[in-house]
Amino acid sequence: MTTPTPSPTATSEPAPGATVFVGLGANLGDARATLRDALTALRALAAPGSFAASSLYASAPVDSSGPDYVNAVARLRTALAPHALLDALQAIEQRFGRERPYRNAPRTLDLDVLLFGVEGDRGGLALADERLVLPHPRAARRGFVLAPLAELWPLGEIPGAGRVADLLADARRDPAQRVERVAA
Ligand code: AMP
């Protein structure tokens, strides 16, 4: 009698960990080059095959000053826990020479955890402590987050806020929130 051999799994299992969206923004120096380098740094945090990056967008500063921002969003799967991911993002910001002279100052590079633990079109963990608020409180209101997020997650829904496509349509009605795609 032969022992049945398990059939090879045809479907590829997702890497362990959580799917997250990270928002990127920069408005000092060569902001496009900074964002491209930061996307490369984020890719290094991602489980193999799990990384995706949006196009780059230009946006008028909101609650901030200086030249236009360049923004993007990345999706990745990570084995890091939420606060460890924040640590990793802050370490990347430091590498890019971010200074925090005052709140909402122009910055070399800003990295935010937008959503953590996304499953399909549903957007993950709700959490609020002194270091981390999830979903990111500004994600649902800012065109510069929603436009690149919609590119990667067109049917997505931010818990407690609504569908990304609807939120983006609202943001686009706000004349103060100019945001345009500038590079693939
Ligand atoms: P910012 O100046 O916008 O980069 O804000 C950075 C601060 O926001 C840090 O002290 C973080 O601890 C805090 N923070 C709270 N929630 C988040 C989040 N979802 N992603 C990134 N930073 C966050």
pLDDT below 50 for ≥5 consecutive residues: which ranges? 5-10
Query: Quick one: biggest sheet?
Result: 6 strands, antiparallel
**What's the number of helices?**
4
Using the coordinates shown, work out and report the CATH topology: Alpha-Beta Plaits
Q: Class by helix and strand content?
A: alpha+beta
Helix content: 25-40%
Distance between the ends: 59 Å
Q: What is the tally of beta strands? A: 10
Strand and helix order: EHEEEHEEEHEEHE
Indicate how many domains the architecture comprises: 1
CATH class: Alpha Beta
Mean residue pLDDT: 88
**What is the CATH homologous superfamily assignment?**
7,8-Dihydro-6-hydroxymethylpterin-pyrophosphokinase HPPK
Ligands in the structure?
adenosine monophosphate
Account of the protein in words:
The chain has 184 residues and is of the alpha+beta class. It has a single domain, classed as Alpha-Beta Plaits, CATH 3.30.70.560. It is built from four helices and ten strands, in the order βαβββαβββαββαβ. The strands form three sheets. Strands 1, 2, 3, 4, 5 and 10 form a six-stranded antiparallel β-sheet that branches. Strands 6-7 form a two-stranded antiparallel ribbon. Strands 8-9 form a two-stranded antiparallel sheet. A hairpin with a 4-residue loop joins strand 6 and strand 7. The protein is globular and about 40 Å long. About 3% of the residues have low confidence. The structure holds adenosine monophosphate. The site of adenosine monophosphate has 9 residues, from strand 5 and strand 7.
Descriptive key words:
six-stranded antiparallel β-sheet, binds adenosine monophosphate, 184 residues, alpha+beta, 24% strand, single chain, Alpha-Beta Plaits, two-stranded antiparallel ribbon
